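does this look right to u?? 5'-deoxyadenosine version
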Amino acid sequence: MEKETFTFERIVELLESKGKKQEKLHKNAALIRDKIVSKNVYFRGIIEFSNFCKNDCFYCGIRKSNNHVKRYSITKKEIIDCVNFCNNANYGSIVLQSGEIRTKQFIDFVEDVVFEIKKRYPKIGITLCVGEQDKETYERFFKAGAHRYLLRIESSDQEHYERLHPKDMSFTNRKKCLQNLKDIGYQVGTGVMIGSPFQKIENLAKDLLFFKEIDIDMVGMGPYVPCSDAPIDNSDFNLEKNLNLSLNMIAVLRLMMPDINIASTTALQALNPLGRELGLKAGANVIMPIVTPTKYRKDYQLYKDKPCIEESSEDCKNCIIKRIESTGMIPCFGEWGDSKHFFKRKNGDIS
Ligand code: 5AD
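got this back:
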């Protein structure tokens, strides 16, 4: 098959696909996914271990100035219990996610926890998602045993980024962090919110080109969903549009970067009960079941109507397996499911 060139104009056209065209787009992306990275769906049990955050992102439910959130940090012992659950469930990897904190205490804690997990469960892959940190901190986490890192750019357009974030957050620094993570040797993931305020379809096309340009290994992107008490204007929010655009983004990205890992995110399920299945059918190959202890889940609502907050980790496991199987894909246990792209990148294979 002839390789298609994804120009800006072509990407916009594909992102706008509806009806039969959209069906064809998703089918093609799923076929490419099956061929290049297989029908396997890899698990990353996500532990939302703290909702303290120094940032005040205008769209986020756990932003610093939201006084309606009860702040929590779960203990090392509780984290290890979550990892133990993942180990018994045979999830190949875990994700440790929290709000962004840069204190010495927080950094020491994360390093220690990663080290302890690696010691007790050497077979489990560890992904971190704890925001912007110094290069030296990223190095410490890497040495302790984390090998993948997620840091969403949120928008690849500086002007748009600045409308979503307060002045003390720097677009340039965020990009620098992504580069530092790559230089250290992490498998690096990024992503954006789809349908966020002020965003145009052209922004999304640029986001996809940005992922390609920085040669990213993994992408997690989901629909924007308004959060409670938002200081941002949500009057343009359109559920159906955001859902369709999110699925089209996954599909187009799969065609553009066939060998990367793409997550079918929980936020898709906030907009449609079958949202995560639709994400898999559009070309995703990673799923992130929540394993945060149930009692904390309601306090980690980045957006309204987040699914799975009343469920236990066992419920989520059983539910997610059924969801994966319903798409004809294969739940893949006990494997890290690393990004194929990462290894090609490491070996200098640029094909
Ligand atoms: N809707 C959708 N996603 C959100 N996030 C934060 N707030 C929202 C929201 N209102 C996403 C951000 C962040 C990730 C952890 O959660 O993209 O990087």
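The chain has a mean pLDDT of 96. idk if thats expected tbh
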